[in-house]
Amino acid sequence: MWADFMKKILEVKNLSVESIEDKKKILENISFDIAEKSIHVLIGPNGSGKSTLAYALIGSSRFKVVSGKIIFQNKDITKLSTDKRAKMGLTLAFQEPAYFEGITVENFLRAGNKNITQSDIEKILSLVDLEPEKFLNREINQGLSGGERKRIEFASVLTMKPKLMILDEPDSGLDIIIYREFYNILENIKKETKASVLLITHREELGYIANQATFLNQGKIIYSGNFRKVMRKYCQFSGRKKICQKINCQMDL
Amino acid sequence: MSKNKLPNGFINSAQKCGLDTILMQKALIPHLYIESNKIISAQKISGLKILTERFQEGVKIKLVVKKGTLIKKPIFFCFGILGEKGKQVILPEIILERGAEAKIFAHCTFPQAKNVSHQMEAKIKLGKNAKLTYQETHYHGENFGTKVLPNLKILIGEAAVLENEFILDQGSVGKLKIILETELEKNAFVEIISKVIGKGKGDDIEIYDKALLKGKNSRSLIKLRGAVVDGGRMFFRGKTEAKAKNARGHIDCREIVVGNSVAESVPIIKVNHPEARITHEASVGKVNQKELETLMTRGLSEKEAIDFIIRGVIK
Q1: Residue B256 — φ and ψ, nearest 5°?
Q2: How far does Cα B259 stand from its chain's mean position?
Q3: Between A and B, how many CB-CB pairs are < 8 A?
Q4: Mean pLDDT of B162-181
Q5: What sign does the dihedral A27-A33-A36-A41 (CA atoms) show?
Q6: Which of A221, A244, B244, B281 is 20 to 30 A from residue A79's alpha carbon, by CA?
Q7: d(CA A128, nearest CA chain B) in Å
């Protein structure tokens, strides 16, 4: 596989995860790799465990790793806390980002990198298509639209200069015009940063910028590898011919 | 420009609380600085009368802003005890006559306190169309060794405005019991905001804020933002009573509880007129998990993240 020839930034080995709250097993025996400087798409139907996998990777206290390992930059991080993983360069932009009473955009962005310069902050805001002069002093409250909050979440992750960022459905809840803008933002991020990206999405079209993909269903990996091959499996599984035509799968359904 | 005699102990704690200590030290800025029962420095300006009378445990103060006077510069008060032990009683009477306007920045400090008591019995009266902004910051040191008991009775005249803010977010609190009662005439407005962080089991905080909306079209907002960490206790009672046509009031309370601490909020709303309306909202509980997790994914430890969230809420 393509990833086999590349240096790996993340290796997930036989990972099984359960919910702390009800001890329900959500992920079973998950194994896949992410290559350095690549975009890896995680795809699967609702409830397949995509977000849980993201939370497990960042070490969320809501989930427990029952067995298996997470190796990040050749180090076993399975037992490390979320903040320690973040300090190593592994972070997550949440699907539905939190709001913070009394915290301005600038303070929120600085939380992830205390040494960041003002000009870098402004550059990052521009990268996610937000005008610095309009947003730096805005409070992160419900006065922001969903799209604005997601861009700020992106920006906050970017200020950390991460090595691997997980983007959990950055396109969810956005109308078609705005989510197309997110294509551009992702492309910008791909060009401007050297970070790897694990992109969780429902929109198969976003995959055109991806190198690899993993298809998850009912907590298990169906297939992981080249994006088109994964999509072929996904098409077979879901029977969605239109998707296959859109991404030019050339498959016989 | 020459400086006044603000002692270093006051300057240091005022800096901790984010006050403009350069401005506070200017000789010509209107001010009154009292350590224990000693008047260290005082400055009047045209239209502002400050009278003081010392007694064994404290100082009686009368401050009058004369009719129609607009005092553009802030008036600074600094009260406190710089030693480990002592008692201070401050008895202020503040009068803003008809149409007068002023801003008072009060700072109370007990930086070395191990057994210090500070009592205040304040009477404030705002005449018709007067406007007072009163911001009070406190620093009680790090030893949980203070007992601070302010008691304020405030009359807000017709179309007068009071914006009152109390902040104690640095260091320990010790025992704090604030009783603040306001009465509003027609078209008057009051905003009472309290921001307090309790840092440990030696912190015992009680805040009783009251707005009595006597006059028609009078308005009030009582707001608390608080947090108690590691065994502290916080009790808040906000009471608003409306007795007149179109009177409007709102009570808004948010308290964060961390570790083995206790917070309690009791909003009381009473309406005695069919065309009055009072609302309230309150949330008391742990730090929002989503906010915490977000900040930890940005590299903040759990403790740093909680502190960041609390500072935001208090801000």
Answers
A1: -105, 135
A2: 26
A3: 64
A4: 97
A5: negative
A6: A221
A7: 18
pLDDT digits (tens, 9 = 90+) for B3-37: 888 999 999 999 999 999 999 999 899 999 999 99
Would residue A185 count as lying in a domain? yes
Residue A42 near residue A49 (C-beta atoms within 8 A): no
Residue at token pair 């990777």: A57
Q: What distance in Å separates the CA atoms of residue B23 and residue B73, rounded to the nearest whole number?
A: 10
Report which DSSP code applies to B244: S
SS3 state at A239: coil
Q: Give the pairing of strands B31-35 and A220-226.
A: unpaired
Total structural domains within chain A? 1
Q: What is the CATH number of the domain that holds A171?
A: 3.40.50.300
In angstroms, the CA A73 to CA B289 distance is 28
| Residues whose CB is less than 8 angstroms from the CB of residue B274 and which lie 6 or more positions away in sequence, other chains included | none
Distance from the Cα of B297 to chain A's closest Cα (Å) equals 5
Q: Does A91 touch chain B (CB under 8 A)?
A: yes
CA dist B191 and B181 (Å) reads: 12
CA distances, B48 to each of B42, B72, B79, B118 (Å): 12, 11, 19, 26
How many Cα atoms within 13 Å fall on the side-chain side of residue B230? 9
Q: What is the rounded radius of gyration, in angstroms, for the C-alpha atoms of chain A?
A: 18
Q: Which residue of B has its CA nearest to A156?
A: B298
Mean pLDDT over residues B134-141, rounded? 97
Segments in B8-66 forming alpha helices (H): 8-16, 21-24
Measured between beta carbons, the chain B residues lying within 8 angstroms of A157 are 298
Residues of chain B contacting residue A99, judged by C-beta atoms under 8 Å apart: 291
Position A155 in a domain: no
Averaged pLDDT, B137-152: 97
State how far the Cα of B138 lies from the Cα of B14, in Å rounded to an integer.
Answer: 8
Residues of the domain holding A208: 2-98+161-246
Residue A182 lies in a domain: yes
Tens-digit pLDDT profile for residues A100-114: 999 999 999 999 999
Evaluate if residue B175 carries a pLDDT over 50: yes
Under-70 pLDDT residues of chain A:
1-5, 173-180, 206-207, 240-253
| Helix and strand numbers, DSSP H then E, in chain A | 10, 10
Q: What is the pLDDT of residues B97-124, one digit of tens each?
A: 999 999 999 999 999 999 999 999 999 9
- Model confidence band, residue B280 (pLDDT cutoffs 50, 70, 90): very high
Does the residue A219 lie in any domain? yes
A16 neighbors A67 (Cβ within 8 angstroms) = yes
Q: How far is C-alpha B240 from the geometric centre of its chain's CA atoms?
A: 18
